[in-house]
Amino acid sequence: MLTLLTPPAAIVLDALLGDPPTLPHPVRLIGLWLEKLEACLRRIKFAGYLGGVLAVILTAGIVGLAVKLLTSIPLLGVLTTLYFAWAGLSLGQLVREGRRVHRHLASHELEEARNLVGRLVSRDVSNMDAVGLRRALAESMSENLSDAFVAPFFFLCIAGPAGLWVQRAVSTMDSMWGYRTEKYSQLGWAAARLDDVFCFIPARLTSLAMLGAGALLGLDWRNGYDHVMDDAAKSESVNAGWPMATAAWLLGASMGGKDVYFGETKDKPVMGPEGEWTDMRLTRLLKLVVVSALISAAVLYLYVWALA
């Protein structure tokens, strides 16, 4: 019964409360651990490929085991199960942040919008105009629909809270170490590749759910279906291109192009048709994200129900 109730309960808690507001969030704890671990690995000059592999095994193992033990405690395990399931989903927070940025952009409050978008993306937003900020937000929301909701919910459904947090631990490692820079190209390689594996199915499920949501919302899903696969293949990431390309084609605005990362200009492949991100398109994107999340969650929950 707990297995069946946990996924929908986690979605409701995430929608109503967002990220846990008072208790230390597990992602923050993982981040602190990774900072200490990286410092240790660099101090002993073990920050190469092998160090990265062992760091992934150690981190994912500790996190998975800790969650498994905490959710197995008699009686208290019910609460810890719900807590870890809720804390592992970030759709509510993603939508709230997206709406906040949208409000600032609609009110022409660019500095406030830059500050918020800068927390969501790793690119330099200091000189972005409103069009660039809208595109950055659209890319972040599309990609994080998969990374921050569909992927963790997928692992929650097939492997419980412990499986969810193994995925979140690897995802956090990828977000902190998974850069193709001199500093992280070796240390972050294993985390980035394992994250690619973990998100392979969720990214494509997200794309399908977005097409279904597009049909429900009256968007041109057939045109999206015809172009998504080709555009997704342009992305450096084997997964990120799927939700981004789908959103771009459904809403008629492009993603990709030139951005500044760590002081260097990067010309990313362009996905989607020619068109700028407007306030109206962002409004539709927010609806698309919510409906897509509900569709993907329903499909995954039916899978759990069928196996129960």
Please tell me about this protein's structure.
By secondary structure, the chain is mainly α. The chain has one domain. Helix content is 72%, strand content 5%. A two-stranded antiparallel ribbon has the order 1-2. A hairpin with a 2-residue loop joins strand 1 and strand 2 (264-271). The chain is globular and about 55 Å long.
Report the radius of gyration as a whole number of Å. 19 Å
Largest sheet: 2 strands, antiparallel
Number of helices: 12
Helical coverage, percent range: over 70%
Task: Provide mean pLDDT, rounded.
Answer: 93
| Anisotropy-based shape | globular
H and E string: HHHHHHHHHHHEEH
Beta fraction: under 5%
Structural class: mainly alpha
**Distance separating the two termini:** 9 Å
Number of domains: 1
Going across the biggest sheet, name each strand in turn: 1-2
**DSSP strand tally:** 2
Taking pLDDT < 50 over at least 5 consecutive residues as the criterion, the unreliable ranges are none
Offer a few descriptive terms.
308 residues, mainly alpha, two-stranded antiparallel ribbon, 12 helices, 2 strands, 5% strand
Structure described in brief:
The chain has 308 residues and is mainly alpha-helical. The chain contains twelve helices and two strands, in the order αααααααααααββα. 72% of the residues lie in helices and 5% in strands.
Summarize the topology.
Blueprint: H1 2-17, H2 26-43, H3 49-70, H4 76-87, H5 91-106, H6 110-120, H7 130-177, H8 189-198, H9 200-216, H10 221-232, H11 241-251, E1 255-261, E2 264-271, H12 279-307
Antiparallel strand pairs: 1-2
